[in-house]
Design brief:
This protein has about 130 residues and is mainly beta. Helices cover about 15% and strands about 40% of the residues. The strands form 2 sheets. The chain has a 4-stranded antiparallel beta sheet, with no helix packed on it. Strands 4-1-7 form a 3-stranded mixed beta sheet, with no helix packed on it. β2 and β3 form a beta hairpin. The longest helix is centred in the N-terminal third of the chain and has 18 residues. The N and C termini lie far apart (about 90 Å). The relative contact order is 0.18.
């Protein structure tokens, strides 16, 4: 009986170690570059690469009532505060991060997300 328990214990340990082996990776390895880059001058950068991390966006907003408006990002960062005058368009240019694709206009308890199209955002409060 003691021999059977020892055999079961040894087989259990062998099974445990066999299950914990690292699997072989097939065709998923990343190839190392041919030359090691050690200095900035060694970098090869496409001539069309855009280094800018921000963009300028033209903003046009108007309303039928005199009211304050917040021009902000979807994350809540306020880019600008303005006072709307009835019948007049408020125009400005703001600088936002390159990845931002919409602006939020907030006025009188209303919050309106508006997409940026060709670096221009327009909205009219009714």
């Amino acid at each position: 009986m003691k021999t059977l328990k020892s055999l079961i214990c040894i087989l259990s340990v062998a099974l445990l170690f066999g299950a914990c082996q690292k699997p072989d990776i097939i065709n998923d390895e990343v190839e190392a570059p041919e030359t090691e880059i050690t200095e900035m001058n060694d970098l090869q950068i496409d001539k069309d690469f855009d280094w800018k991390t921000t963009k300028d966006v033209s903003v046009k907003v108007e309303g039928k009532l005199a009211a304050a408006v917040l021009i902000k990002g979807a994350d809540g960062n306020v880019y600008q505060k303005a006072m709307l005058t009835p019948g007049q368009t408020y125009e400005t240019t703001i600088t936002v991060p390159s990845y931002v694709d919409e602006i939020v206009f907030a006025s009188n308890g209303m919050s309106v997300p508006t997409p940026i199209s060709n670096n221009l955002v327009e909205y009219t409060f009714n």
